[in-house]
Every structure is written in structure tokens, then in C-alpha cells.
Write a structure and sequence with these properties.
Oligomer: single chain
Mean pLDDT: 90
Order of helices and strands: EEEHEEEEHEHHHHEHHEHEHHEHHEHE
Number of strands: 14
Radius of gyration: 22 Å
Helix content: 40-55%
CATH architecture of the largest domain: 3-Layer(aba) Sandwich
Strand content: 15-25%
Distance between the termini: 31 Å
Shape: globular
Number of domains: 2
Number of helices: 14
CATH topology of the largest domain: Rossmann fold
Strand order of the largest sheet: 2-1-4-5-6-7
Length: 367
């Protein structure tokens, strides 16, 4: 499938806009603050059901508006006439707290006009995003690294999506029980048993799927930068929950499980110094350039993993890569462009080679 059409209403800086695409490459050109990253965020939102920039839906809404509406037309890649046969219409409607019931914001997902749960909405449009924000994955908090694993697996595995949803709900309920127990000094063991079992069951699925993705990355050939990904897994089991029972009561939160997972990237000693004999964590010992190459390599593996799981290349979204990569690695990325539909943002067309511009559709944004 490929993105054929995109409509945005009251999304970020877009009041009402519509865009059409070919199934090849589109270059989005605009000055800073013209809405280039917002554009890619909208495509990502329609693919994943959430933003890559914020956890708060109200932040994507145009200032002063109460409802945002995103929609996309998806066509089979073999469709050469842009007819609507076998087309899919994806829609997301976001209402502010003022419009939602009891003052709570609401979000609706629709596929061809039919309401869907997010777990069923995701999986109709596939994207891989490379953004300057991705560089924080290496040097930032464990949550950002978990988000990378989640992003890949949510897009490709409905069992993972379901398990993550169940775990997130169960974790919220169990933490509420722990907070209550901390305040009152009493534990309702029957309630804890129920939520413990829920977290153990869903948590083990999450860990298994994450381990599979990490094994895929470690076993794949690394053409850009060599590294090994080590999974720092927080095992959840009856024994571990019992072991941390007193500590959890004092903290008021669940201390073990996939919400505490992390991974680190070990780079070859020669990449650090000719005198090094042991591999080191790129977060602490790699240069900014090496960290950037690790992220780029991970993104290429994400493309391959999605294609392997779904037998379909995802849309590649490249946000301002011309300012983030050197000429050698820009060339390497551009060599991949013909393999799938690609949308690229840049501040100036002059950054792009003439031969590339001749093959790409261009959309110019204005403030």
C-alpha cells in the first residue's frame, strides 16, 4: 500500500490542507516553522495512532480549536490508475476536553468510516521515520529506547499490540493498589493476585517479542556501523514480585517488568581507540557522529524488519536528514529511496542534487 492523499484540519499549524502523492518520492520544502515536521507527524499519527513528539493529544491541535481531523487515502502499490478499488480511508478525530464527555478529551479511529480500537487501526499504513529527535534514543532515558522497540513491534505484530495494551492497563491498576496499600498499610492479596497474573502473562509476551527483534538486529549485516545490542531485561515473575514486595510497598509503584526494560549498544573497541581491547557503550564512549550512525543503522533494520514481517516496504519518512548526516551517508540513504514510497523534508531545494529533484514530486510549504 502507499499514501495517495492526506487531509489535515486543525492539526498543528494546518487549518485546512490537502495533499496528493505519487507512489515514489515526495520532497517537502519549507523554511523553519513552516510545518515540515508537523506534516510527517501527521503521516506517522495515521500509521501508529499516536504522535512521535508528544504523549498529549491536545498538543497536536491547532491553537484555539476544539477538534482536529486527520485523514489519509491508501492505495495498493500495484494501482497504476489511482482508482478507488481496494482503497482504504483512515481517519483520526481528536476532540479537546471541552468537547469530550465529562471534560475528558476523546480520540476516534476510523477505517473506511467504521470505528476501530487503536489496536485494530494500527496495521493499515506502515511507516519508518528518521528524525533528528531519534538521536536522543542513544543518549536519552530508557523510555526512549523502549519507545523504539515498541514502535517497531506495534506496527508489525497485533499480539504485541494487545499484550502492551493489557500490560499498560494492568500496570496502572496495580500501581493504584500499591499506592492505596502504602497509604493504609493493608494489601488486598486477592486483587494483587489478579493483576500480578495479568502483568506476568502480558509482560512475558512483550519480553519475548522484544528479544526476537533484538536478535534480528544482532544477526543482521551492518553495512553502516558495527555494534551489538544488549537487552537489559527486567524479568517479571511471581518470584520477582515477591522479592520486591516490600520495596514496592515503600515506593508505591511496580518495580519489575517490561516498563523497566532497557538496551545498550556496544561498539567494537577499534571504533573507540586503536588501544582499546573491550567493547564499550556508545552512549558514553561513542562520538556524536558514531551515535548518529548507530541510529541510522537501526532505522535501516526497522525497514528490513517491517518488510520481512509484512512482505511490504513501509513508507520512509526522512526529516531534515540533509542537516543531520554528512554527504557520504546522505548518499547511502538516498540509494534506498527507490525501494519504497519516501517523503523527505528539507529547508532548501539547493541541498538536493538536481538528478534527484528531477525524479521527485515537490510540495512547497509557506508560513
Amino acid at each position: 500500500m502507499y499514501l495517495n492523499q492526506l487531509s489535515l484540519q486543525n492539526f498543528r499549524n494546518y487549518s485546512k490542507s490537502e495533499f496528493n502523492f505519487s507512489k515514489d518520492t515526495t520532497l517537502i520544502v519549507g523554511a523553519n516553522a513552516s510545518g515540515k515536521t508537523n506534516f510527517l507527524e501527521a503521516v506517522f499519527f495515521l500509521a501508529r495512532g499516536e504522535s512521535f513528539r508528544t504523549d498529549k493529544d491536545e498538543q497536536v491541535m491547532r491553537f484555539g480549536e476544539e477538534v482536529s481531523h486527520l485523514s489519509a487515502g491508501i492505495l495498493p502499490i500495484s494501482n497504476t490508475t489511482n482508482t478507488t478499488n481496494n482503497s482504504i480511508r483512515l481517519e483520526i478525530i481528536i476532540a479537546s476536553g471541552a468537547m469530550g464527555s465529562r471534560g475528558v478529551g476523546q480520540k476516534k479511529y476510523l477505517v473506511n468510516g467504521v470505528n476501530k480500537r487503536r489496536v485494530d487501526f494500527v496495521g493499515n499504513l506502515f511507516t519508518v521515520l528518521f528524525s533528528p529527535l531519534d538521536l536522543d534514543m542513544i543518549v536519552g532515558s530508557p523510555r526512549l529506547r523502549r519507545n523504539f522497540l515498541n514502535s517497531v513491534l506495534i506496527a508489525t505484530d497485533i499480539e504485541y499490540r494487545t499484550a502492551l495494551l493489557e500490560f499498560t492497563k494492568g500496570l496502572r491498576q496495580r500501581n493504584a493498589l500499591l499506592e492505596k496499600a502504602r497509604e493504609t498499610g493493608r494489601r488486598d492479596e486477592k486483587q494483587f493476585d489478579y493483576w500480578d497474573n495479568t502483568l506476568i502473562k502480558s509482560g512475558q509476551v512483550i519480553a519475548q517479542k522484544r528479544e526476537g527483534l533484538i536478535n534480528f538486529i544482532n544477526s543482521s549485516q551492518k553495512d553502516i556501523f558495527d555494534f551489538v545490542m544488549l537487552y537489559d531485561k527486567s524479568v517479571i515473575s511471581k518470584e520477582r514480585l515477591l522479592q520486591y514486595k516490600s520495596a514496592e510497598l515503600g515506593a508505591g509503584v511496580t518495580l519489575v517488568g517490561p516498563h523497566r526494560d532497557d538496551f545498550n549498544i556496544q561498539i567494537h573497541p577499534n571504533a573507540i581507540s586503536p588501544n582499546e581491547s573491550e567493547s564499550r557503550d556508545v552512549k558514553f564512549f561513542g562520538s556524536r557522529g558514531q551515535q548518529r550512525l548507530v541510529v541510522l543503522q537501526l532505522k535501516l533494520f526497522e525497514l528490513e524488519f517491517v518488510e520481512k514481517r509484512l512482505s511490504e516496504r513501509p513508507i520512509l519518512l526522512l526529516d531534515d536528514i540533509f542537516s543531520e548526516l554528512d554527504d557520504e551517508h546522505i548518499k547511502l540513504v538516498l540509494e534506498m529511496i527507490g525501494k519504497q514510497q519516501t517523503i523527505i523534508t528539507t529547508t532548501r531545494k539547493e541541498f538536493v542534487e538536481d538528478s534527484f529533484l528531477k525524479e521527485a514530486s515537490v510540495i512547497e510549504l509557506h508560513r
